[in-house]
Structures
1.
Amino acid sequence: MDKIKIRSLFSDKYKLSNGSADSRSIAAVVSHDGTDLTRYRAKRLLKELELVSFQLPKQAYKKVLQPHVAIPNELNRRLMSAPLTRFGLAI
C-alpha cells in the first residue's frame, strides 16, 4: 500500500479519536481494517505528522467540609461491616 494512503488512513483514525488515541491503538484499528501497520511505524507517523496523543482531563470535584443541606448524613459515616467468621475467614 502506498505511503499516502497509509498516512490518510492514519490521520482519519486519529481525528476519529479526537486526539486521544496513541500509536498502539491507531495501529490496531488500522490493522483491523486490513492494512498492516505496526505500533513502531505508527509512532513514527505520529512524529512525522506532528500529532500528539493526549487524554482529556477528568472532572475535578470540589472537596467540601460542610455536609450537604438537602441530603442529611444519617449514618454519620459509621459503617460497620459484619465479622468474617461466618465462613471461616477470620482475620
2.
Amino acid sequence: METISKETLQSEPINAAFAITGSAGFKSSNIEQMAYDDKLQKLYIEFKSGGVYEYNNVNKSVWQGLKRAESKGHYFYVNIRNYPNVYPYRKLSEFPKTDRTFYQ
C-alpha cells in the first residue's frame, strides 16, 4: 500500500462522476465522505478515523450498492474491504477534489 502526496493528487485530477459527503448526504458511524470515479472505476473513502483511501476496480454496481446500503460501513467491509486482491487500494494524504457533489 503506497501513500500519495498532495502534489501527486493535484497533478492527477479526479473526474468523479458522483460524490457524496457524509455530513449532508448520509449518516455513517465509520465513513466521513466518499466519491466514485466512473471512468476510472475508483472509489475514494475518507473514514471518520481520518484515513483516506483509493480503491481500484470498483465497478458501478458495487458503487450503487454502497450508495443504497442502509449501513455504508457494513457494506464496505463485507463487499470491498475484505477483497484486497479484487479491489487493490492505497492510502492518500487527503480526499481528492471532485467535479460535482450531490446530496448537499
